[in-house]
Design goal:
- The strands form two sheets. The chain has an eight-stranded mixed beta sheet. It has a three-stranded antiparallel beta sheet with strand order 9-10-11.
- The chain folds into two domains: 82 residues, no CATH class; 216 residues, Aldolase class I (TIM Barrel).
- The longest helix has 13 residues.
- By secondary structure, the chain is α/β, with parallel strands linked by helices.
- Helix 1 packs parallel to helix 2.
Length: 298
Amino acid sequence: MPDEKYAFAPASRLMQPDEIETVAKIFVAAGVKKIRLTGGEPLVRKDASLILEKLGKLGIELAITTNGVRVKELLPQLLAAKVKTVNISLDTLDAAKFQKITRRDLFDKVKESIAILLENNFRVKINVVMMKDLNDDEINDFVEMTRHHDIEVRFIEFMPFSGNRWTSNQVVTLEEILCEVQTRYDLIALPHETHDTAKRFKIPGFTGNFAVISTMSAPFCSSCNRIRLTADGKLKNCLFSKGETDLLSALREGEDIKPLIQSTILAKAKALGGQFEGVFQNIDAAKIENRSMITIGG
């Protein structure tokens, strides 16, 4: 969790469901085929059901990343919106460690949510931010989840953002993760699609698979086609970009936002938002200008 304390933004500063729908339609018309709701926690919004309803009518692949706490409560809405994929953020399989990390006694509720999603035929992915001396001893425990369940466990290299106290020696790299897995299992690499951000692997005979998002040790910037719209209507052309384009203000003033979208995409830096280059061990996190991860959306 970031060091800073955050208050919820006033509703007037956030995109409203109709505004989200309007911007989403513009992107869909431009060729976007997949939209993911993320956060922070997208399902904490009181109007989450309405947002799901509106986006579910756009004819695109709809996905969501959530902490899993409200999955059971909002299951009918997730089904009605035809959400295809649900990513559950879960950094540990130890209940006591979970409570220490999240400061919430909700481990069993998250486990229940995963079971409910599998029972209802959602594609389930588990997002695990790997950190040395925190959860790197659980790598193979997470891989074991894929033995009998059609789950993709996604190990994410720890990335520097405002307030998360990042240091390079906390990063568990792609190579280190694969070496640890191979102490117990054989593995095979799965086909890699052009715009995949994750390198995917499978244990022979297992039902599911695992993947590694190697942002720090093996960046994939040249093939990344993601673009992010924050809850307060700012467009970011890269997760690490310090620059933002205020679509919400322009939309509320009646401007045509399509030129703003195009110029933002064309201004994308060659790699990692233009904030750092070279090996990640040389990154000075104090010099990075960006939001916290929870206000960007991963």
